[in-house]
């Protein structure tokens, strides 16, 4: 995979062990549909390098020799996050699970309470899991300034120097330099996403910065300001953290307490109200990758300004982004297009309409189309499955189980299953039996039979599952025992 790459060079950040990276992984990235969907959003995809956006984000803290990150996410994504972090050697992350989405302010508050248990004055470096940064050396220089300002009691954000009249970002008006703090300014005001004319005026004035959404502040400072401006939110999240429970390697926030928290962004809750707001003007190649057009800008391009990923053939094509996950995709005599092909969807759009993809997702949701949120491939804690074909009273799936993992002990009321192993070895529980099923062997599981599938080997187990019966929905699963605490 090509594209601009971050430089993973170790750097020095003052008092690094006091800086806690906080990674917010709650977005669905609907403007990057059909690749990014609720079940597997953009932060889990390798869109620019061989690593996913989540992995790139976590490794920024590793390169700066900071302590392990606190990751705030929903329960459905917990195993994906844990596996992706392990794959790049991030072993000391604390993964905190939100029972419901309540926007960025409660999420950051939860991280602040968790960090404050060890050190109330720990400096939080809050960042989204799905942003790209192309110049990490400049990032760490800006972080150094932000940490110093945070230690002086400020709530600091990074303001990106705008390169175009962007209407998809909020803006920050840059105020006076703060005395004694190199490269740090007061925030004159935060500005909502502007119209085109206003964005042009902001760009020409040279006084406005893009709001990156990254924040640096002491845990104690952030919590003090939150208690001052949003006391109800403060108390709800405090109780949710205090009553949290440990589930394997995860920390589950208390459901009832967290659900009572107001749904509000950190901008509205604290940043726009505090008198301690500061900004570090910077230019380190930041992008929230909020659209296919922004991804095209960040990607490596051919001599005709095309960014191409996957099995693609072009002739007389210019200024376009073409991506496929396997199906041969051919474009001829077109320009300024975004073409994205996945296993179950094809999206073709003019590049100027990149921001409108979310409207299509809303229409799909309104029509009850599963393609709005779910991929053909569905990830589970033990691996994944994907549908191959479906007809009247039958369905065929490909199932891949990771080494040393197992599915729940379960049964079905409406379907029977036939498993054919094509790679690896399966240990199958069938009623009171345990059976080893090897490559090119099969096993039959009648309706109502208690069963479990496990991979005892060191390579992934791949099998073909043929389901038959009057109802084949995923909710026809009665779990008797499960390693992953699912109902």
Task: Write a concise keyword list for the protein shown above.
3 domains; globular; 487 residues; 23% helix; alpha/beta; single chain; disordered N terminus; six-stranded antiparallel beta sheet; five-stranded mixed β-barrel; Spore Coat Polysaccharide Biosynthesis Protein SpsA, Chain A; Jelly Rolls
Please give a structural write-up.
It contains 11 helices and 30 strands. By secondary structure, the chain is α/β, with parallel strands linked by helices. The chain has 3 domains: 16-287, Spore Coat Polysaccharide Biosynthesis Protein SpsA, Chain A; 301-365, no CATH class; 377-481, Jelly Rolls. Strands 20-21-22-29-24-27 form a 6-stranded antiparallel sheet, with no helix packed on it. A hairpin with a 7-residue loop joins β7 (171-177) and β8 (185-191). The protein is globular.
Strand order of the largest sheet: 20-21-22-29-24-27
Largest sheet: 6 strands, antiparallel
In CATH terms, the superfamily of the largest domain is Spore Coat Polysaccharide Biosynthesis Protein SpsA, Chain A
- Number of domain units: 3
CATH top level of the largest domain is Alpha Beta
Any idea what the shape is?
Answer: globular
- What proportion of the residues form beta strands (DSSP E)? 25-35%
- What's the gyration radius in Å? 24 Å
Tell me the total number of β-strands.
30
Task: Give helix % range.
Answer: 10-25%
CATH architecture verdict of the largest domain: Alpha-Beta Complex
Low-confidence stretches: 1-11
Query: Could you please say which CATH topology of the largest domain applies here?
Result: Spore Coat Polysaccharide Biosynthesis Protein SpsA, Chain A
- Structural class of the secondary elements? alpha/beta
Mean pLDDT over the full residue set: 93
First-to-last CA distance:
39 Å
Number of helices: 11
EC number: 2.7.7.13
Domain Nucleotidyl transferase: 21-303
Domain Mannose-6-phosphate isomerase type II C-terminal: 368-482
Family: Belongs to the mannose-6-phosphate isomerase type 2 family.
